[in-house]
Amino acid sequence: MTTAQRSDAAAPGAPAASPETPVVASLDHARAVMAEVAASMSRVISGKPEAIRLSLVALLAEGHLLIEDVPGVGKTMLAKSLARSIDCTMHRIQFTPDLLPGDVTGVSVFDQRSSTFEFRPGAIFAHIVLGDEINRASPKTQSALLEAMEEQQVSVDGQTYPLPQPFMVIATQNPVEMEGTYPLPEAQRDRFMLQISLGYPDRSAEVAMLDSHELSDPLAAITPVTDDTTLRSLRLATRTVFASDSVKRYVVDVVTATRSTTLLRLGASPRSSVHLLQAAKAMSLLSGRDHVLPDDVQSLAVPVLSHRVLLSTEAHLDRRSAASVIADVVSRVPVP
Amino acid sequence: MTVQQVSGWALVRERARLSDTLVSAAAVLLALTSLIPLFADLQWVMPAVAIVLVVAAVGCGSRAIGLPVPLIPLVQLMGIIGTITALYASQEAYAKVFPTSQSWDVLRVLVAEGMLDAQAFSAPVPTLPDLILLAVGGAGLAALCVDTLFVSVRSALLAGLPILVLFVGAALLQFGRAPWWTFAPAAVGWLLILAADQRERVREWGGVAATTRIRGLSTVARRVGAVAIAVALVAGIVLPVRATTGPRGSGDGAGGGGLAGGPVVLDPLVSMRRNLTLSNDAEVVRYRTDSANPSYLRVTALESFDGTTWRQRTGLESGRDPGWELPGVVQAPGDGALSTYDLSVTSLENAFLPLPYPIAELQNVSGVESGWHLDPGTGIAFSEDQSATGLQYRVTAIEPEVEAGDLRGAPLPKGTLWPQLNVPGGMSPLVKQTALDVTADARTPYDKALALQTWFTRDGGFRYSTSVRSGSDIDYIAEFLEDRVGYCEQFAGAMAVMARTLGIPSRVVVGFTQGAQGEDGSWKVTVRDAHAWPELWFDGVGWVRFEPTPRGDATVRAPAYAPAASTGSGLNGDDNRGQLDPEGFAPVSADESLDYRALANRATLLIVVLGGLVLLTLPMLRRLVRRRVRLHRRDYAGVVNGAWSEVGASALDLGQPWSPFSTPRQAAERLGRGMSAPGGAALRRLRIQVEQVRYGPAPASTEAGLTVLRERSDAVRADVRIVVRELRNRVRWQARLASYCWPPSERRRQRSSMRSMNPGDLRERVSDGAVGAAPSSAGRTPKAE
Predict the structure, then answer these.
(1) Which residue from B323, B22, B16, B54 is spatially nearest to B197, judged by alpha carbons?
(2) What three-state secondary structure class fits A318?
(3) Which terminus of chain B has a smaller tally of CB atoms within 10 A, N or C?
(4) ipTM score of the complex?
């Protein structure tokens, strides 16, 4: 059963929305804009500045975000607050076992009046797509989402439809141990740039949350602070952040180190090197810096890498988590 | 995230170092337990433990002041020498520790004695100072090797070798009769090293989070080790092994007088050779006598020969035959002239009195109340527990008036029940055959004895030499008759045994020759006068001394009734070579030699002091040079990176947190905690510069002129000074002083350079290199901030 909600803005049905050439945003501008977005989000998600920061990193670094946590800690809220803070389209797909790929990508419907097949875009045609409980859908549907995420386009009946830019998927999933879930295959996890988990808020944050929910929905109070055009220029600015050769080597060293440790059955992919550097650039931009530091790489290694690796039996026996193994690996790589 | 781990790293490392040294020392101490069965008691333990601790302490100290790794064993060796000097030759040493040439002499003599004693005694040996010295020296060297191999070279496997040598050496010295448990402590010691190594490795890899693994691993190691030791012990007991007995152990049960396994009876013969080879002339006895031709001084008479050793008669050994109490008249003066001996024992640890023979009376024993007895059969005065040192006594001796004619008329003794006729079984027929051949022309027992003496001293072509091993067992006697090289022990033993094969009762007497008469008329007997000779029994005359030893010097006198064969062939030629002639070794006059020695001593002291000073200031000098180099590189990037290294080194020197694994930002964050505003600002400026130089984009153009560059470099140097001053102000003056004199940063550098020898430790080498900055960013100038 599809429960694709449409948000306020209409989905762009036209296959090619010609993007105007965006201007590369300046450092200070980028920092100021993102600080506003973060402030807007933190009105809803209280006490989780790190999660907000990481979601902004994914947004700037042209990546997708995977939020894994138990139900009810605000995964959807985070995604919605991000989308609302930016003046852009946002769709939410509630994944269920009977969701079909066509529900996600869209289908061609025969129009009797024009005697032609007309494409009805699916829920994925939006700037920000929130895939709720993605691991409850069947693998077939998951892989439809996968293609869209990677290619930034949808192919139906031989016709290719590009997705709007900027395009970002925020998927939430319950921990795999929970009932009624299909664990995401490694290939699909690899396409998410970052995985974060929110965790329970602390006492005061939870009390504050009760206060904010008492009278009205705090989401409703959020107004956009930026738009998709600005976002495109920010993304370009992210790409221009300087990363020295030594930092690039450091990134590769970190990723390579995950492949040689005995605690991991599967190390991180070369794609993750790209993602790690890209995320580090975004982090630098958020800090208003024009070059990447090893500190950026260090602070992002766990969220970027931990969901891509598989623990070895040894690590399982030691009850190690992927995050702690990655942290260990990073601490062993010499800083340039 | 990983900040905590990274910061903890350096500390963990330091502790591991110290614990490694301690583990090495503990392993050696455990291995030393395998020496316990070697010694009769535990007197050696304290000095051995002390020297192991000294080696460990010196090792710790040298590492603490950042000595170069190759020098550490040398310093430890100096520590060993100093300790040994303090223990055994402190009288002759500077400040009781620094060796002088005199103390070297003392030690050399002790070592030489120890080597001889080690060959002579079989385990368990008595705890003589020279043997303890060997054990202590061995323990020190083993500790040095283990410490070097484990802590410096980081090879736990190789570190097991010295322990193995210690254990195997001890086992071999016991001829395979080592107690079954001795190997276990040594094995546990090595396991300690292996476990420490394992722990170290895990810690290097896993960081803090790996503590569970550490526990798991060492549990496994403990279990495997325990099982292996248990299996080895059980297998050694259960598995059939060919029974092996020591080459010299077989005779113990047969004629040893029931002493096998008990406390060692000091074999009087074994100390003979060592006394003979010593160059010093320690006085043993001094005496005055009215006799023109003083008798040899007898200490003990060995009448029982079991094929392995000559021993005293059983009754004497066990004290069951008390004889007569001393002092007192022991024998009515019989025939012959009497002469008086006033003896004073200077130094003789044995429980025997040196006495002429035969004696009529012994009196005026001073310095001892009771407990001395005289055995009339052998003429031996003995005590059960007292040493003869310091005693003074007067002896009335009978001048033997033995004529060759009387002797010649004496028949062979009747009966074969004489214990002094016992020839042990298993003796080579060559001995008896030789005796028969030599005495073929002699008819009376006396002539036969004389023929033997002549053969030994002249006709047989025997050569006197103390450079053979000691012993007079039956195999060795046969060997001696073939080789014809030996000293008094072999001559006396061989002649006594040969006499027995001819039916003449014989015994071996150990004692001293008459010594040398001084200008004041007193006779002085030194350890070099130690001697052994046979006494043969002639019916109607008694026990008569013979002198078969062709000793080249004048100390040996053949008795009048058995005159030495005309000297010539055997005495002046090669024979002298085996002996030490103290005067022959002094080519320069005594005064000159003294001056020379004093000079040498002064030079030694000077070298020691200078060397010590250089060693102490070496780390400081190196640190200063490195600071200068770091802060005065040619390009700006070099200056900035050097400045950062300098800040890190200063932090390390002053015991502030600094880890090579943190990024500049993390390092500055930790270091800047609690800094004053200007210090914090300077540190932040430095950090930004470092980040810019290392990770920032290259500036579009190098528009910055030389002056700008110089100004910037000066600013960086000024910031370094501010930060370092701030760091110094944080600590007390003692720490500040220590950071000047023994900078730990030098220690760390040198350790990491040492570690790079070990291929497993790539990590630290890389990290150390990282201090020098990324090569790609070298030569850049930063953008203006």
Answers:
(1) B16
(2) coil
(3) C
(4) 0.76
Read off the pLDDT band of B123 (50, 70, 90). low
For chain B, say whether A196 makes contact (Cβ under 8 Å): no
Q: Do B663 and A291 touch (CB under 8 A)?
A: no
A290 touches chain B (CB under 8 A): yes
Nearest to B580 by CA among B283, B315, B274: B274
**Interface touch A298/B695, C-beta < 8 Å:** no
> Smallest Cα–Cα separation from B326: which of B265, B399, B268, B380?
B380
Q: Say if residues A157 and A117 touch (Cβ distance below 8 Å).
A: yes
Q: How many angstroms separate the CA atoms of B550 and B558, rounded?
A: 10
Two structure tokens written together for B255: 């004629």
Order of strands, edge to edge, in the sheet holding A128-132? A90-94, A128-132, A168-173, A65-68, A194-196
Query: Which chain A residues are within 8 Å of B203, Cβ to Cβ?
Result: none
| CB-closest option in B660, B661, B774 to A246 | B774
Rounded to whole angstroms, the Cα distance separating A287 from B1 reads 19
Burial of B418 (0-12, 13-18, 19+ CB in 10 A): middle
Q: How far is CA A335 from the centre of its chain?
A: 28
In this predicted structure, the answer to whether residue B761 has a pLDDT above a threshold of 70 is no
DSSP A8: S
3-class SS of residue B615: helix
pLDDT in tens, B154-210: 777 788 888 888 888 777 776 556 677 777 888 888 888 888 877 666 555 544 444
Calculate the alpha carbon distances from B31 to B35, B143, B725 in Å. 8, 10, 50
In tens, the pLDDT along A211-227 reads 877 777 888 888 888 88
Contact A226, A86 (CB under 8 A): yes
Q: Could you report how far apart the first and last alpha carbons of chain B are, in Å?
A: 29
Residue in A with minimal Cα distance to B691: A293
* Between A267 and B11, residue with greater pLDDT: A267
- Measure in Å the smallest separation between the Cα of B774 and chain A Cα atoms: 6
SS3 content of chain B, % helix, strand, coil (to 5): 55, 10, 35
What confidence tier does B140 reach under pLDDT thresholds 50, 70, 90?
A: very high
Token pair for residue A10? 């209409």
Nearest by CB to B666, which of A246, A295, A318? A295
**Structural contact between residues B519 and B450, judged by C-beta atoms closer than 8 angstroms:** no
Per-residue pLDDT tens digits for A163-181: 888 899 988 887 766 666 7
Sign of CA dihedral A242, A247, A252, A256: negative
What one-character DSSP code corresponds to residue B696? S
Q: Which residues of A touch B776 (CB under 8 A)?
A: 244-246
- State the virtual CA torsion across B708, B709, B715, B721 in degrees, nearest 10: -160
Q: What is the DSSP string of B289-338?
A: ES-SSPPPEEEEEE-EE-SS-EE--HHHHHT----EESSEE-S---SS-E
Chain B residues inside the 8 Å CB shell of A330:
1-2
* A/B interface, count of CB pairs below 8 Å: 80
**Residue B39 gets which letter from DSSP?**
B
Beta strands at A116-121 and A106-111: parallel, antiparallel or unpaired: antiparallel
Tens-digit pLDDT profile for residues B591-632: 444 556 666 667 777 787 887 777 777 778 888 888 888 888
3-state SS assignment for residue B486: strand
Cα–chain-centroid distance for residue B514? 35
Provide the 10 A C-beta neighbour count for residue B94. Answer: 16
What is the per-residue pLDDT across A17-59, written as a single tens digit (0 to 9) for each? Answer: 344 455 666 788 888 888 989 988 888 887 888 889 999 999 9
Cross-chain Cβ contact A295/B212 below 8 Å:
no
